[in-house]
Amino acid sequence: MRRFFRTGRLLCFALAALLLLGSCSTSRQDADWIWSAGFVLTMDPSRRIIEDGAVVVRGDRIVAVGLRTDLERSYRAARRIHVSEAVIAPGLINAHTHAPMSLLRGLADDLTLQDWLEKYIFPVEAKFVSPDFVRAGTRLACLEMALGGVTTFADMYYYEDVVAQATRECGLRGVLGETILNFPAPDAPNFQQALDYTERFIRRFQGDSLIVPAVAPHALYTNTEETLRASRALANRYGVPLLTHLAETRQEWDQAMARFSKSPVAAYEQLGLFEGPTVAAHCVWLDELDLRILSRRGVGVAHCPSSNMKLASGVAPVTKMLAAGIPVGLGTDGPAGSNNDFNLFEEMDLAAKLQKVSTGDPRSLPAIQAVEMATITGARALGMDGEIGSLEPGKRADMILIRLDAAHAVPLFNLYSQLVYALKASDVEHVMVNGRLIVHSGRMLSLNSRSVLLEARRLQSRIAASVGK
Questions:
Q1: What pairs with residue 213 in β-bridges?
Q2: Helix, strand, coil in percent for the chain, rounding step 5
Q3: Which strand (E) or helix (H) includes residue 211?
């Protein structure tokens, strides 16, 4: 009889354990994805680095970030990615590009900015830029950026509605500005038609989950006061950002002084260009007054170290801008003449080293600041830090997984230093944007890579025949 009761008690305990396990498993929340890796680089306000961490995604949002073991107990995911020797990081942000110019890569190098623009780029663009050219060039750029871990880019070009269509097709996020000039452009024979085109573009994409439309007056030296003011007014009417080039070269500084008796930044301030969200590319030639203006107006700056070096434009005072509270992101600029790729890992490395050599202080722009510029500070520069730039619950699920098992990645003592000074764009293994996996195991899922490259080579042959290359 005792044996019967003892057996019965054991059966009850076993049944209770099974019921408890069942209740635990049913209490787990459903999710679409759990990504886990040896490290999670959050870039949150405390800059947490979580060892053996994980990120949980539901829909287009991050719902949890923490220790892998804790999150696996709390969530049940339809799909999993786990790589132990890797780091999960926020998607990189390219704060200044001209994406379709990927088709002009290497066309005219080792020239001054003015010679490059006036003798080569503007004439070739006038002849070849069309919706088909822009679509093919954007696809090529998105392919390169996505494979290298870029999930968001800011762009200034022509036929920007076509850029937007191709960007959505690729699954990337874009802040896309239709270029405004004071002379005929490939998509508008005059300034008023350019404004009308831009307004249609804004109406079409405003509120889109991936595309932020913008107005992009090219620069002080390619616009009149009328066109600049009208561009700002249009941007403010629809509550969209204004993108522009600013204070890039000494020649631009001299022209502004002759025309306005002011620096380019002070001239923009006088014209009211900063009276609304603004992202200014380059900002190399600045004085102390300029720094105060940019800081007071909350202007985001896109620092393009490769471009500034290649065109001998000068060295942007990045450490001074950051010290003044100016949000500075990183940009590649266009991959023709000014830079020949879209590699944000390279820009992080060069940004840090350029400040060190220009200030004579190896402590200038440490690795962590370079990573911030490519992620959360870059998001601030674009006015999007509430949505992207860090891995935090509630933010968009824009993230990348970077392998840490290549020879150049071992040993690992400091993750920020490894990202800036050792890792490469080719180390990116997986990429997610808005909860959608677009790169898996180094392969683009949202584009046919072979078709993109074939079309680019076909257009290269046409351009080369025209310019005698």
A1: 176
A2: 45, 25, 30
A3: strand 211-217
Cα three-residue angle 159-161-163, rounded to 5 degrees? 75
Give the C-alpha separation, 449 to 140, whole Å: 8
Q: What is the pLDDT of residues 345-377, one digit of tens each?
A: 999 999 999 999 999 999 999 999 999 999 999
- Give the Å distances, CA to CA, from 286 to 273, 291, 323: 17, 7, 14
- Tell me the one-letter amino acid at 258: A
* 431 Cβ contact partners less than 8 Å away, ≥ 6 residues apart: 91, 146, 147, 149, 151, 399, 400, 401, 437, 438, 439
DSSP labels for 299-345? -EEEE-HHHHHHTT-----HHHHHHTT--EEE----TTTT-S---HH
Which position has the higher pLDDT, 7 or 295? 295
Q: Give the pLDDT confidence score for residue 49 in this predicted structure.
A: 98
- Which residue, among 268, 351, 361, has the nearest Cα to 304 in the 3D structure? 351
Q: What is the mean pLDDT of residues 333-342?
A: 88
Contact predicate 204/169, CB 8 Å: no
CA angle centred on 217, ends 214 and 219, rounded to 5°: 140
Which of 450, 434, 464, 463 has the alpha carbon at shortest distance from 143? 450
10-24, 58-72, 242-256: segment of lowest average pLDDT = 10-24
Whether residue 304 contacts residue 331, with contact meaning beta carbons closer than 8 Å, is answered with yes
What gap in Å lies between CA 282 and CA 248, rounded to an integer? 5
pLDDT at residue 240 above 70? yes
Q: Quick one: pLDDT at residue 468?
A: 65
Residues in the chain: 469
| Tokens 């107990």, located at residue | 73
Cα–Cα distance, 86 to 38 (Å, whole number): 6
The contacts of residue 45 (CB under 8 Å, 6+ apart) are none
* Closest C-alpha to 148, from 348, 431, 408: 431
Scanning 360-404, the segments in alpha helix (DSSP H) are 367-374, 376-381
> Which residues contact residue 233 at a Cβ distance below 8 angstroms, ignoring those fewer than 6 apart?
none
pTM summary value: 0.93
Q: What are the φ/ψ torsions at residue 116 (nearest 5 degrees)?
A: -60, -45
| Token digits of residue 202 | 């804004």
Percent of the chain with pLDDT over 90: 87
Q: Report residue 181 as tokens.
A: 């000039």
379 contacts: CB under 8 Å, gap ≥ 6:
93, 152, 329, 385, 387, 388, 389, 390
Pairwise CA distance, residues 148 & 442, whole Å: 9
Q: Is 31 helix (H, G, I), strand (E, B) or coil?
A: strand
